[in-house]
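A common beginner's mistake is to predict each chain separately and then try to dock the pieces by hand. The better habit, illustrated here, is to supply every component at once so that their relative placement is modeled jointly.
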Amino acid sequence: MTFSFTSSMIMAVLPEILLLLLGIIVLIVDLLLKEEKRRNLGWLTAGGLLTILIVSLLVARPSEAELVWGGMVRYDGMGFFFKMLFIFAAAMTSLFMMDHKALGHRGEAYLLLLASTLGMSLMASASDIIMLYLAIETTSIPLYILAGFMTGDDRSTEAGFKYLLFGALTSTVMLYGLSLLYGFSGGVTNIYEIGELVASGALAPLLVAGVAMLILVGIGFKVSIFPFHFWAPDVYDGSPTPISGFLSTASKAAGFAILLRLFLVAFPQISLSWSLLLAVMATLAMTLGNLVAMAQTNIKRLLAYSSIAHAGYAMIGLVAVSELGTTSTIFYLMAYILTNLAAFGIVAAVSHVTGSDEIKDYSGLSRRSPGLALAMLVAFLSLAGMPPFGGFVAKVFVFAAAMEANLVWLVVVGVLNSIVGVFYYLTVLKYVYLYRMEDEDEEKHPIPLSLSYAIALTVLSIGILLVGTLFAPWFGFSGAAAIALF
Amino acid sequence: MAFPILSVIVFTPIIAGMIILMMPGERKTEIRMVALAAAAFDLILSVWLYFAYDITAAGYQFQEMHSWLPSFGIGYHLGVDGISTPLILLTGVVMFTGVIVSQSISDRPREFFAFLFILATGVFGVFASLDLFLLFFFYEIAVFPMYLLISIWGWVKTREYAAMKLTLYLFIGSVIALIGALAMYWASGAHSFDLLVLEKAHFSTAFQNTWFMPVFMGFAILGAIFPFHNWSPDGHVAAPTAVSMFHAGVLMKLGAFAALRVGIMLMPQGAIYWKWVILGLAAVNIVYGAFIAMVQTDLKYVIGFSSVSHMGLVMIGFATLTRSGLIGSTVQMFSHGIMTALFFASVGMIYNQTHTREISRLGGFVKIMPFTAIAFIIGALVSMGMPGFSGFVAEFPIFMGLWQTAPIIAILSVISIIVTAAYMLLVIRRVFFGEMPEEFAGRMNDVSVMDKVALGLISILMVGIGLFPSLMVPMVSSGVDHILALLG
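With all components supplied together, the output reads:
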């Protein structure tokens, strides 16, 4: 293979290069700062990430999709859009981390966050199964450490270890699938070439379907969809809250990015064999996630189960196997990232003061901190799928895509589930707005918000509103990303 | 470009709500003033809209159209016809009077008015939408503030239960209707959510017969159609006064209106196919609601079940699919809206002082609050369908249409008029006349001037339309002509 250097090769990985640079800067500044000032690394990380976001948007936007770096990555709209989402999510997460004593006052945490974001960016654009696997591991290993970052806390350690065990197991199964694919294809590793092989009939559909199932195990773990969801509640519960938020949004979306690319590019010919399976998985994820969420008394576990359900909703778009379906899945993920980051950010802000994640300790929140209560209203109603917030349009789009594909039963399952969702999201809001604290004097227990929380929550709330009302540009971006796969 | 009056009407409440949310919570007087000013502004605009609507031209007027998501056929399309213009006026009236009677709210008034105004925007928006997506957008916006309004400021005993029940019922209804709407979107092949485009889509008869019921019933749940009515009285009872007024006065009309606009107007063949089922269910509403209202001991439950009965009249008028039935139903939506708002306002005024709504514990209030008593009596006369009041203008054509379509159902439903008269007169006698119980003697005060303004405004409207039906009927008739054209 001839190797010629072009500018698009740099542009294709510009965000990754800048992420690496930022990581090095964080590492150096960490050494220069005194211990009590290390919190400010959060500003540096968030500011740096936003700069990367702006620079990438200005100079590195892809025009024509092309395979670069010997077919390892594809420089296209889909990869680019997801990268921007991940970088944004990481910026918000670093703002949430700043006030977390065990996490945000140590430079390594920010570095690990950046390393994991780097891995996710590569996941979004990887077009070769070797690159794919490496990217997944680059993403996962820092996250294992972050989940278990609070070494003095048994629950955090348990979360990190559990995440590692589940992650290692599922990624092994996936690696097995990838190596079988390598064997069947006669050494072809590029996803697009594999897609052509499958289309030409050179590979037996049955074998490909089997391989796809093995790979699905690894991806299913990343997106925490039924039946690979067991780790999610324990890990979200034990991890430091900002990390739970990052796991449930960016990491999940990264899983969806490879799921979309792999299944729509490499295996579209056999879509009949996997779309029904994914539909059943989505159904079970929604149903189980929502029903179990109803019974939770801990807000992080409730959000964990709700995030399993949301993986199911997002999956509906993929099951439709159409351009609109893919667009709607990407749109859904965008709305969901904004919303769930806000939800976990609020949980972090509250538990920073109260030290508790129990739902009953949210009683009287609207009197203790009206602003925080309002942000919670926005985030939870968006999760419930109420306008004018992002969650509503996102749900309408995935349901519309499924109706186009005549999947009426799946839409019925989806809407019935969203009713269950409304029930438990409103139940949480009932604590926030209706119930009183035990001593009935909330004025004496205000919940002060530090500047970093205030900025991040404001940005996210406005984002949720923007996606929910002026949705045309966002839908356009999602559509541009989706079209790169067809 | 013409003045975007509909957008201004729709967005005034939510903008006022946001301004109120920005204000410091302890400045309660200022918050109330802003709320009142916004409500008055919207009332003036909706009155202006009502009289500016050109009846001879008919059709959809004051249209505003902007692209919203062109690639998906979603547009920001507003416009009103002879059916929705009276309902916008109704919303303006109920919002204004609702804000007046809520002046006594002292627990977090900032959040109360903000949520109430978000609700108002949703309601105005549904009535003015000419795009199916936009309609759903506003419809859901109108649903969720109800939950908070009832559960936070409602009657302590049942508020949590009633608020959740109401929200879930309405949400179930709306998402079922949403599935139908998406089915219509794909079946039409026009790639548009615009109602004017969908009206001309001519769906196949099989499609209409399948999807009419989910769409119609999904919305009709909010109109409290039997057997999905029982969230409604519970909700009325649990809600604070202004929210009861909104709920019974406007929100239930939202369901009926959307069922008409999306169900009957987009799928007329389906409506013809299923009309007997709707006639039957609505007849149960009318008669059953009236009888249940008769045996209630709680004043608010009486009004709540009477609403179920009266909304049955609206539905049955729709289902006749005749000119007089549809005209009657639309006038009934308006008339019942202001009447029931008046009832709940009066009940609220009594409850604020007595802290009980048990009919057996009340009595003799005519001496203390004569103005409220007179207004309540006028409302009762409307409720009974007495000539000279707006109720007659509404109910007479409904029964006329019903007689043309289904004489037996008409005969059965007419029973409700007698029952309504019976329970209304009983309530008046027990609450306003007779001996005042000793526990209240000497402790009661007359209602405030502002309350009298609210009651007076509604009473004038009810009598005005009763005496001069031409104020409303020609306009409604122009809207009904269009529906009849769609029905073929």
